Amino acid sequence: MTTTGAQRLRLLATRRMMPDVEARLAASFDVTLNPTDTPLTRVEVLARTSGIDAILTCSLDKFGPDYVGELPASVRIIATHSVGYEHIDIGLAKARRIAVTNTPDVLTEATADLTLLLILGAARGASWGDRMVRENRWGEPSLISPLGFDVSGRRFGILGMGRIGQAVARRARGFGMALHYHSRRPVADGLAHGATYHGRFADMLPHCDFLSINCTSTPETRGIVNAANLALMPWGAILVNSSRGDIVDDDSVIGALQSGQLAAAGLDVFKGEPNIDPRYRSLDNVFLLPHLGSATPATRSAMGHRAIDNIEAFFRGERPRDLLTGD
Ligand code: 8YV
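Output (structure tokens, whole complex):
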């Protein structure tokens, strides 16, 4: 049980979570759960945070300045059930002395698995192939149509060589791919899995038959996959994104998919999701998923428990393992 003195700590969970996570919350806190998948409005969040010590949220809920600035002084920590934290105004939280934590590590393998699914699905036509069979359009088999693209042995570039990028690199080696990466700094040799480092994103692109986006969304990376950068890739390259939708410029990617500059794309994340740019739906050369990177029971449970571990450590007076707000 998590207490301050004799009192149980009060926690607001903004979203429905895995049953074992909710059970632990109920056992440890005076908890207000959201029993539905309906997002709480700003007014509801602010009303429900009155007297609340901790908020457990996720990347689906935005904690911008209009939320963080208005939270009652009782709120000491916002724990997000996600590795990404661009949905929280960290600077303002820090200024208000509200701790913020995320949940890295526990979703690395699931997200890397999903990235390989995007690569294979986009290259080999999983989406149009599935539709052909379901819609009874298989027709007379032909030796020359339909065809996808090879994956094994091709050149593969990774944008962002953090934990997930490294786990993707490890998997891509199994396909005999020639690996390249760009990130702010090179990683230690053993972590690059033989990938060649490029200090400039533009320098890596001519080597990318495949490009995988695995960086975080920051002011520097937002919109970085634009027309100018796509034009540096070999004609007919394949793009996959399992990170954040706003890293790509949708107009540029859609234009490249229409012209053939990009042969295909595998996308799990979108700007403004779930309200994605409708033009993606009418393209045949895209493999689209509804943000499934961490969507397995074991991973979602592990994320929830990691978030609770952070909250409990904080109230024990320890430094939470995944503290994002520094001191
Ligand atoms: C989350 C994610 O599952 O962790 C992240 O940053 O994008 C996903 O894994 C989802 O956003 C719920 O928080």
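The radius of gyration is 22 Å.
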